[in-house]
Amino acid sequence: MISWRREIHRRRQDPMQPVASQFSQQLEALKVLIVDDESTMRKVTKSLLQVIGVKTIYEACDGRSGLEAICRWAPDVVILDWSMPSPNDRGRSVRMAASSAISGASHRMACPR
User: Fold this and answer.
1) Are 94 and 80 in contact (CB under 8 A)?
2) How many domains does the chain have?
3) Residue 81's closest CA among 91, 70, 68?
4) What pLDDT digit, counting tens, does each position of 20-41 carry?
5) Is 50 or 84 the better-scoring residue by pLDDT?
6) Range of the domain at 105
7) Phi and psi at residue 50, in whole multiples of 5°?
8) CATH number, domain containing residue 97
9) 109 inside domain
10) Does the residue 104 lie in any domain?
11) pTM above the 0.70 mark?
């Protein structure tokens, strides 16, 4: 009778638990940058990221600060308002730097030292 109960308990255990735990750890380690000129959208996006477990979230309110943030923090993910207005076409530079960061390419051109 005892072995039967153990078997039921074993079957109830979630086989995806190790995968979910690993995924959770990866989300916690992720560095995310949110670049958006609308503070409400940054807050909503940040809240959603926090709900799924992302711990390190940076914010930038325009193209210039977004580019500086990419250079300073080297985020793993950049969430970018693609249609964000930006003086001096800094938005294009941010998109190029974000694209380079995502593709794993060096962003030396966008982030001179």
Assistant:
1) yes
2) 1
3) 91
4) 788 889 999 999 999 999 999 9
5) 50
6) 30-113
7) -65, -35
8) 3.40.50.2300
9) yes
10) yes
11) no
